[in-house]
């Protein structure tokens, strides 16, 4: 008998019809003799509807009250799924985050889970019930309702899987797994049977929006085996674990990309200690997130400094940087908000040389100018002009033979 | 400094605009230096929307899950009102029934309140906050969410007023008080400044839908001064207390009526001990509520037995009674689903003779045939043909001079 945590997102419970499908899927697994905990999001659109109501009441809604409000969304879906399970003759019991209880800190709208009581859930599971838990929410030490922030239902699922030592945590989404790259850009993209946490983190932070980063970090930290799979079609999805696959020996696992980048450069900066802080300090204070950072010595006395930000923050960042340019007596500020980032990701990089040069050779052969390069242990990112995105992704996909199932090492 | 509990129903919080009006009303009272607890229902229509969702999932929704589901309606309104109060610069804090906590038994969908923790509310009040509590809901000893049944928000308000020894419990509705009768039937109907609990109970159970019976019983039991008043216009409403008014010496306080009645008669029933049970037992088992019951001896050996039920239950009750007629070897079953009940109510009856005869004389002068009579200490009810309802109510209103403010006794 195995214990599984199943998590279904808003699209998967977006209508009573879909909730019924979820109930059927859950019952099928339960009938096989496994113990099942289900974690649900709110029906798609519901959280946004509630936020809109809140904003009608208060320009900047009080965060404690916001959590009281939006936590109702998941409470509705867990009750409805339990009813659907009962209708199928499958005993089930729903719980809010507070009822479980999922104890969090008091940081309303983005609380962190501190502890999960497993006693009540364990008792229900042992009594043969399916346990249905409202995702995204918890309760602080004083009994105030908290929420975990966007994607918090994934975090709830992983945290429950960790607390109850589940065999696997299944994240059901509208895609059937993690792909070598976005199939809308490269139709030959292939679903990966297996990926490591580290690769998944790099893929997620680079724009493959399958899973929330926090839940992957959490799963990694507590060594919870995660599986991403489709709510709507059969299949075994993609398993995410610590272990590198015995079966697959790919050099790289996938190609991630991010369209919404912009690049800013300040040139001729006097090369003195603390200059990076002087440049990025005002950006950070304005709550603008900086992604890639590259610094080059231009000549003996000055340096050129380039970084990327989200395209929405480009104008604000540029204005701040122009002030810094004056303050530091630097030469000038240039920028480009028509760039994208393309990254190759894979734990195979650790043990194989020549991957970077394959990437650069492929892009060079296409006449694609690389504007920035940044590397980590398991990824190489390049910034290129926006118009080359699809071409670069497809040709890199082919160059690394990602469309083919790798042979056993 | 006084402590008030204000309860607003679904219509009063039916839109964000109306929630804002409630916030303004509450703030005004709070600014006068009084302590305010607000109890809210769900936005009008919301509970029915949720029930419809439930019925899509399960033909007979599991009651525990139904309570998890529908309790979200009030949770939404308390959060929104708290936000609206904050927007007005008035400190406020919302609580679900479980957070307060309002401890109930485990009778899902119609739980009874066992105990209310006042500590948390008292602390907030003393800190100058408005406390906003979700009506209609509580939590059982195991932390399961319960609801109190239709009109449960009134019960929550009264129970909080009792627990915290509030000076008055204000029930804001879409009418501006309790009237001598329904103004849609008799435009001369007059708002009563004051009515006793007993009168209110008789008025409520007879179809004046201003307050839920249970909340009036509760208020009477704990001696909570109740005031019914309008959410939408100014005015001091109707105060409901134990004391008979010093100012008003009316013989009767009002005329209640109920349109949805049906009458069933079984004649020629052998007059043996236990016959009433044999007749009403199957009706009760079918969960059909019986209102008036009249039994007359027809001759030495048999009896005629008449009772009224809600018109919706007429056919089911008639079918059951026909089987009973066969079982008891009674003569026959007759019925009429075109009848109404008209009642005069007043504590003045206790000390004044001749009230019944004034009623009967008035109806006789109009040629209205009385089909059944039933009396209690402070009310007299008659059943008449449906078509006479408005005429009977108006003429009785005039006969007892209910349009005039009574002189001081």
Description of the structure:
The structure is a homodimer of 409-residue chains. The first copy, chain A, has 409 residues and is α/β, with parallel strands linked by helices. Chain A folds into 2 domains: 3-174, Acetylglutamate kinase-like (Carbamate kinase); 255-399, VC0802-like, CATH 3.30.2130. Helices cover 35% and strands 27% of the residues of chain A. The first copy, chain A, is built from 13 helices and 18 strands. Chain A has helices spanning 16-31, 46-57, 63-70, 72-87, 97-100, 119-126, 152-163, 197-205, 213-221, 275-285, 314-328, 355-365, 389-399; strands at 3-8, 35-40, 92-95, 102-104, 113-116, 130-134, 137-139, 145-147, 168-173, 194-196, 226-230, 238-241, 254-270, 290-297, 302-310, 332-345, 372-376, 379-385. In chain A, the strands form 4 sheets. In chain A, strands 3-6-2-1-9-11-12-10 form an 8-stranded mixed sheet, with helices on both faces. The first copy, chain A, is globular, with a radius of gyration of 24 Å. The mean pLDDT of chain A is 91. The interface between A and B is large, with 38 and 38 residues.
- The side-by-side strand order for the widest beta sheet of chain A comes to 3-6-2-1-9-11-12-10
CATH topology of the largest domain in chain A: Carbamate kinase
Whole-number average pLDDT of chain A? 91
Outline type of chain A: globular
Number of strands of chain A: 18
* CATH hierarchy: architecture of the largest domain in chain A: 3-Layer(aba) Sandwich
State the separation between the terminal residues of chain A, measured CA to CA.
33 Å
Q: Quick one: which chains have the greatest interface?
A: A-B, 38 and 38 residues
